[in-house]
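Ticket #4471: structure output looks truncated?

Reporter: J.K.
Steps to reproduce: submitted the chain below (263 residues) through the standard prediction queue, then opened the result file.
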Amino acid sequence: MDPLQQLKPTKYQTAYSLVAEAGHDVSDWNDYERPTVPAANPRYCYRWAWEQDGLIIMTVWHKNIRHKDGTIFYSNNYRADWIHSTANWPTRAAQRDTLLKRAFEENLSCRAIIIDGPSGNHKRLLDPESWFVSHYDDSTGDVTIKRGTQRFVDQFDATEVSDARITRGTRNDGYHRDPKVRTAALERAQGFCECCGTKGFRMENNCIYLESHHIIPLSEGGPDHLSNVVALCPTCHMKAHFAADKAVIAHSLQARRLCSPIT
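Returned output as attached by the reporter:
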């Protein structure tokens, strides 16, 4: 069967019931003048996305989902002009845009409520698979969401590993690391250390772990650019920082043209 056809909703279900099914506590939906009909609470039922304790749920229109090269994805822009065609849309779009940005920067998986049908008779389906934000451009608002889970992560990704949490984004050294650059380096490496060639280890969430590294450190004026960032196994990363021959390692990474030489 066509993968997109399998995701086509076939029955009426409320956003309330599916948000609850996805794992949110929906008790606050009762807190309005019609507590016996929580599904109709206007504070929540018209939203395009919900967040609770790091779990993001978003609506996705079935007609806008695409399937290419085995990947199911959805692209849009919640700052575009079409958002202003209806009075309430800008507020809903801004809230969704904020959550999508957070999902991208913190590597949070999302659940998708897929919608189909005319206004007033929407059919909905909670996709059993997770989705993730594979691309988010903060300057334009362009976003792409893919069905499945993130394949590669680094030391800054917000990923649960047993009881430990690795924080993504900006380290306490004061230097910002662009998540788009790190993601691109991980995708380029495809799970293999760009120094020794060994495969990164598989985590409990099934992602392949490598560590992003600036060949010329940010503290020494190195650019936060793909040409200066490589993906390394933890051992090679430690060597790149602390080995007696770390200068040789840095030169080797550039000489191999795994990334463009810095001039």
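Triage note (M.O.): checked the attachment and the full token line is present. Residues 89-106 form the longest helix (18 residues).
Status: closed, working as intended.
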